[in-house]
Amino acid sequence: MQQHRTFPDKSIATNPLGNMTLNFSRSNRSQRVHIAFIAAIALASLSICSQTRADQWSQFRGDQANGVAETAHPANWSETENVAWTNPMRGEGWSCPVVWNDRVFLTEAVPSETNAESAGDNSNRAQGRDPSQKTYQWQVVCLDSKSGSELWRQTAREGRPVMERHSSNTYATETPVTDGKHVYAYFGMMGVYCFDMEGELVWQRDLGQYKMRAGWGTSSSPVLLNDKLFLQVDNEEQSFLVALDAATGEEVWRVARDEPSQYSSPIVWKNSLRTELIVGGTNYRSYDPQTGELLWQLNMQKGRSSATPLAIGDRLYVGTEYRNRGGSDDGGGFLFAIAPGGQGEIGTSEDSANDDFIVWKNPESGIQMASPVLCKGHLYLLERRSGVVHCINAETGEMAYEKRIPRARAFWASPWVMDDQVFCIDTNGTTFILAGGPEFDVVGKNEIDELTWSTPAIADGALYFRTASKLYCIRE
């Protein structure tokens, strides 16, 4: 096992990419533009929506973790229209389905009591911890994608939870990941498990039990790259990032992190210079996925890190939610566009205009619970409570619009992109369809009256989304 210090030598990068750096004042939206020089690598990908493979959706937000569907699912649906099948949920879980060829995988925490309290609540943020001492079965489920029939169901662990969780969270919130050979399920403090595609347990590993902030529970999903499985275990006691051998579960490397509880998931950023593992927090950090060495970090001035960052080609978009409630994470609310090649400290939220790796920053549009998407050259960010969408020019950082979607409720699930349109599903199960581009235009709405916090999966012409009671397959 290799170990590395959290802060290596902060040397200066020898050949940073040129870029245009923009800085927007928090007090107003006047622009202060500093042009270092025009980007050496064109952002061709900003003019179109990026692509994923049509027949699979292997992890949270898809193969590229960007929420973009190459395959077209039906644009219209309801509880009776274009519903190919539904499968009832036996337990709780906000984990997202993942798809590989003709199989759909998801996780559940099934309580021993049949009248168990449903995951979540309609008030959306009722404070309080789970008072129950129920026995749960933490299960991995495999369904046939064509019929919805259950192919296998395996219990990874059975017993009482070792930690509390918020009344709106679940004990199966982390999304599994698959490489077509194995399925990796992470249940937070209840362990990580590897099954083969037929449901046989290959290995399991206990990463320890640690307190989370205010008993809210966990939600960070694993990410897979080649032969390594990465897990972000940020908590109130002993935060760390760990790489496990995907074949055996053995620890390859581990790095300590000076972070409190965080809820975002790591992503792999494959840019023109190198491959990086991006991990959110009060400091956004980039690690070498092979060794765990810290490549660069960006001080976000606190705020909450719940959403997953977005990487498109040679641009990385990161941000935290602004907090002003008297807590230790008060602050944040910044959105950054980052160019590849950074090393050491690449800037601070207060003064980054002259940093060669900060393309632009916008202090008025931090990322909240839902992870952002990119469509037709614009970023889309959803506010978690008020039904508001922020549309931001991805090349300049300028706000195109900030609008409330009529009759939209809270957004906890992340949006997705199909055919130059942005699909946003609220907690009531209503999906609002926005036209891509700088003009606000709600072009459609689909309603399924069920509590929904889970982000859908799209593969092979079908949309799979999970409510509190069932999994839907939308297909013509």
From TrEMBL:
Coiled-coil stretches: none
Compositionally biased residues, Polar residues: 112-126
Which GO terms label this protein's molecular function in UniProt?
A: protein serine/threonine kinase activity
The UniProt annotation puts the region (Disordered) at 112-132
- Indicate the segments forming the Pyrrolo-quinoline quinone repeat domain, all copies: 140-368
Q: Which Pfam families match?
A: PQQ_2 (PF13360)
Xref: Gene3D superfamilies: 2.40.10.480, YVTN repeat-like/Quinoprotein amine dehydrogenase
Q: Which UniProt keywords apply?
A: Kinase, Serine/threonine-protein kinase, Transferase
**Keyword Transferase tagged:** yes
State the name under which the record lists this protein: Serine/threonine protein kinase related protein
* Annotated source species: Rhodopirellula europaea 6C
